[in-house]
Design goal:
By secondary structure, this protein is an alpha/beta fold. It has a single domain, classed as Alpha-Beta Barrel (TIM Barrel), CATH 3.20.20. Helices cover 41% and strands 18% of the residues. It is built from nine helices and eleven strands. The strands form two sheets. Strands 1-2-3-5-8-9-10-11 form an eight-stranded parallel beta barrel, surrounded by seven helices. Helix 6 links the parallel strand 8 and strand 9. Helix 1 packs parallel to helix 9, helix 2 packs parallel to helix 3 and helix 8 crosses helix 9. The longest helix is centred in the C-terminal third of the chain and has 19 residues. The termini are close together.
């Protein structure tokens, strides 16, 4: 059982002293992982529907500061020593995969092999348009990008011909420190996403109700069996949708009660959102490790 914290790189706390201060304190206190989300731009008055809120809108304003995901993790890698560093999740279809392969390998090398490559296809059509990337067939782009990135991480001379990307005899160095590659966690709650997890993922990075996660894991296991893959090789990880509160005994008991259904499904890693400031985050991590983790285990 592992616990991670989402860094405050979005919104009013997206400042150097807060983001790096929280990362440094949480790492020293023994957090298992540190996470960022991904939007390059958020067009004003977007019509695309955010799938994780009834309002269809993200819970932050369009003009809120949103520090870029990979750059933030590179900064965090320099002030931490042990916590894994991950994206929850990188919108892969709107990024150039050879560049992503180089950026992520760089992050893995400079962090000492601590990265978790979390990816998804995204939902914000207007953002893709602003970046000059087609939104249609983003699932196909994502899967092709994953294949190309894995080749860049593994092969000395990379040649790839696909529908969306084509390269010939590239050297893409250095390779990530982790072998055979950094873990790949895949998000999404559609049948196509479940097939993607079964084909490419070491874990499904899910969220939503326990019932939704149960049906999602059942679909992923069925897809894995169809492709001849052992379903047991695919983990369930959860991005918790509630603001973390472990400030009192009652709050800790509520947190344990809320998380237990996911543990019963086999969840191995939880990513939490906390609004605690850097000077208080060590207490939060220590409370999670002392009181919440043993109760779930």
């Amino acid at each position: 059982m592992e616990f991670g914290l989402h860094l405050p790189h979005v919104g009013p706390f997206a400042a150097r002293e807060v983001v790096l201060g929280m990362a440094r304190a949480a790492d020293a206190a023994g957090v298992d992982s540190l996470w960022v989300s991904d939007h390059v731009v958020v067009p004003r008055d977007y019509a695309s529907r955010y799938p994780y809120a009834p309002s269809g809108k993200m819970p932050v304003p369009e003009d809120a500061p949103f520090l870029e995901a990979v750059a933030t993790l590179l900064a965090v890698s320099g002030v931490t020593e042990r916590a894994r560093l991950g994206t929850s999740v990188l919108v892969l279809p709107q990024r150039q995969p050879v560049l992503v392969a180089k950026q992520w390998a760089t992050l893995d090398v400079l962090s000492g092999g601590r990265t978790i490559f979390g990816v998804g296809v995204g939902w914000l059509a207007e953002e893709s348009a602003a970046l000059g990337v087609p939104f249609a067939r983003r699932g196909s782009r994502c899967e092709e990008a994953l294949r190309l990135i894995e080749k860049c991480w593994a092969e000395d001379s990379v040649t790839f011909t696909g529908e969306h990307f084509r390269v010939e005899r590239l050297a893409c160095e250095p390779k990530p420190l982790q072998k055979p590659r950094p873990p790949i966690w895949i998000g999404g709650h559609t049948p196509a996403a479940f097939r993607r997890v079964a084909r490419f993922g070491d874990a499904w990075h899910g969220n939503g109700t326990a019932e939704l996660c149960s049906s999602g894991m059942a679909a992923i296991r069925a897809e894995a069996e169809k492709s001849g893959r052992d379903p047991a090789t695919i983990s369930l990880t959860i991005r918790d949708g509630k603001l973390l509160d472990v400030s009192t005994r009652e709050a800790r008991e509520r947190t344990v009660e809320r998380l237990l259904p996911y543990v019963e499904l086999g969840a191995t890693h939880f990513v939490f959102l906390s609004l605690s400031q850097p000077e208080a985050i060590a207490d939060v991590v220590e409370t999670l490790n002392r009181d919440v983790k043993p109760a779930l285990e």
